[in-house]
């Protein structure tokens, strides 16, 4: 088969740029997620560990994509020296199991996050079953990648003699893998969360917001669908590194969009901290915050107050809808001997419970404490 040559067609830079963008976005969201979980709410879970490992796989995959681009990826076979093309094919093969496991790990990370908020045993068992199936299936796919030829070196070294499965068999396995990935994306981003989250004991806005964020996983499903469209023409003319350019881009997009979608629900405390929370200084506006402060009323006696919090268990705290506690501070005025206690009562949404201020005592030190009451329910 004659090698195709067209020096004007060079998409190696496009491959690197596309993969770099989606990997950088995924890395930024994971770093923010770890900051929220380890510093802000101190609740690191298995889902955080799984998503971190997935990001490591994605970064290694990106490094291999850069190496491929420098060794013929995105170029026609006739425009690349034979030894360079051979090395590029070798690196291309090495990147396949990396992204194969990355796709599986991102599903496991999302599943672990859903288990943390599942209060019904049926959903827990269903999610665990899907996670176990994906892990088992991925290991099986790994064996098909390694043993598709009697000598796997033939995939990058044409001088090696070996027999391989026919193209239709390889394509059928690729279609099956892509279809199962799309199915799990639908299950974890839409089919399972909708009924599970709709019955949570939180207000409508919280439920809708959480489901919309989880629904971002549908973009990973769309990326897998786009990748499928490039499979029929792969390798038909022996121009493998040119044909693989779009498959590489959309495989990396599928993984990194999944990482980003899995991390976004955990970032609400960070958004509140940076942009202003709905506790009076954010979505309700600065004017609402000023109005709240003006509503304080003075009472003549000094009393230490306790603030109580009610939560619906682990649900909100694990999906980024944590109830935030703020430190209570004592203010002392040495020039006055009058003791004044100031309190405020406001009606808030279920997910907007917080203590913004504290009783102010003039002329003496005070001690204030915050008591959190957590109620668990298992239906």
Automatic annotation (TrEMBL):
<feature type="domain" description="Rhodopsin">
    <location>
        <begin position="32"/>
        <end position="272"/>
    </location>
</feature>
<feature type="transmembrane region" description="Helical">
    <location>
        <begin position="178"/>
        <end position="198"/>
    </location>
</feature>
<feature type="transmembrane region" description="Helical">
    <location>
        <begin position="210"/>
        <end position="230"/>
    </location>
</feature>
<dbReference type="InterPro" id="IPR049326">
    <property type="entry name" value="Rhodopsin_dom_fungi"/>
</dbReference>
<keyword id="KW-0472">Membrane</keyword>
<dbReference type="GO" id="GO:0016020">
    <property type="term" value="C:membrane"/>
</dbReference>
<keyword id="KW-0812">Transmembrane</keyword>
<dbReference type="Pfam" id="PF20684">
    <property type="entry name" value="Fung_rhodopsin"/>
</dbReference>
<feature type="transmembrane region" description="Helical">
    <location>
        <begin position="98"/>
        <end position="119"/>
    </location>
</feature>
<feature type="transmembrane region" description="Helical">
    <location>
        <begin position="126"/>
        <end position="147"/>
    </location>
</feature>
<feature type="transmembrane region" description="Helical">
    <location>
        <begin position="48"/>
        <end position="69"/>
    </location>
</feature>
<feature type="compositionally biased region" description="Polar residues">
    <location>
        <begin position="305"/>
        <end position="316"/>
    </location>
</feature>
<keyword id="KW-1133">Transmembrane helix</keyword>
<feature type="region of interest" description="Disordered">
    <location>
        <begin position="281"/>
        <end position="316"/>
    </location>
</feature>
<dbReference type="InterPro" id="IPR052337">
    <property type="entry name" value="SAT4-like"/>
</dbReference>
<comment type="similarity">
    <text>Belongs to the SAT4 family.</text>
</comment>
<feature type="transmembrane region" description="Helical">
    <location>
        <begin position="15"/>
        <end position="36"/>
    </location>
</feature>
<protein>
    <recommendedName>
        <fullName>Rhodopsin domain-containing protein</fullName>
    </recommendedName>
</protein>
